[in-house]
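ok here's V(D)J recombination-activating protein 2:
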Amino acid sequence: MTLQPLTPVNCAGLLQPGCSLLQLDGEVLLFGQKGWPKRSCPTGVFGVRFKHGEMKLRAISFSNDSCYLPPLRCPAVCRLDPYDGLPESYLIHGGRTPNNEISSSLFLLTMDSRGCNRKLTLCCKEKELVGEVPGARYGHTLSMVQSHGKTACVLFGGRSYMPAGERTTESWNSVVDCPPQVFLFDLEFGCSSAHTLPELSDGQSFHVALAREDSVYFIGGHSVTSDSRPPRLFRLQVELLQGSPLLSCETLDTGISISSAIITRTGPAHRYIILGGYQSDSQKRMECSTVILDEKGIQFEPLEPPKWTPDIIHSRTWFGGSAGEGSILLAVPTEGRPSQPDMHYFYHVNFHTEGEGKDEEATLGCSQESTEHDDSTPLEDSEELYFGREPHELEDSSDGEGDTYNEEDEEDESQTGYWIKCCLGCQIDPNTWEPYYSTELHRPAMIFCSRGEGGHWVHAQCMELSETLLLRLSEGSKKYFCLDHARLFSPTLYK
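and the structure:
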């Protein structure tokens, strides 16, 4: 195995605790770190590439019929292997937005197409659930089970805000573990059912979930009530019978005390590696374990960890995700060192033995993972992005690297900045401003008016835009005009 330091090329600010790494069509994708999109980058999903010790990001496009995918941190993510003629895909449920709003939505992410220059285009669809629907949450898990020729999705755990009726001024933003119910739903009809099992008596969050055939194993996790990480291990068995499913749960005595661990699969068989995570609020889990699922059950084997650097050893927090089979992207904070301008150090951990996985850019599918550390650093919105090119220019890139994210491409805020008086009636005050749209956190959303020499930026709130219209305007490259200049043009320009 190897531990290689990575130099982020103008993209370090986009990776924060709570990010998710996905793999589609052999490409590693970063999801969950975008705030408000600028004109040339409307999706918030990026391709991640490692080459010669450098890490680069490039924008990923969505198909025109895709729905808006908000920047979700610590969602439940589940990979769906190809079956019954359906392509490989990902389910994404819940999560926390940069505005600290908690989602209850379920999204299906698939590959839409590959351009002539191998440019990846994704398709995102929101799926409606009916019946006993799980509430908004984050830090939970999704797993797929197969039984009697059927498939179903298992959702468990997570945390959410304290119920509105129990909140006080002091506990308004307090979070609690969700009730320890198991939700089962099928993807074809969207029917959801809730199940209560006596073995699952306490809520747990940021645990590990691994599935094989009709069984799901829940490993570790953190409990808000007891503020502990007991070495729990449950085996949930799901029989998808005609009529109603049959669920049973067994408590095993070989669990691990861990939360927020990173999981990577090491081959087509059900063999995984657990790295990272926490044993307590002040103690990281520095050991590694191999987990094997077979017909006999689950087995844990100790695995020699990489040779940790002093920065990793002495850091209080760490986070990351699977970057393909036997490959992990790991990040630790720089702890505010003046000599290090970036917020985090990044490392590529490769568990392949010598002779395996020689191609750094080749990545395959991996298991479900948990990439949270809720009580480490506050969730912060990433910088707004501008790639300095129009979408058609990105499509014509022949080398596939033309849409690499570059912080230097962003506009100078001293000239286009957020705290300008954008129009005569502008009421935005930097000292009292609060988020108005769900996509905002630290800065108000802005729209670029194309009228006048060079155009100018105006606050979307001052233009009295609905959030739906604001999102639609940000997705295209057509010209649009502020309220002052729109009177000179046809209203159809806003359609």
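+1. The chain has two domains: 2-350, 413-494.
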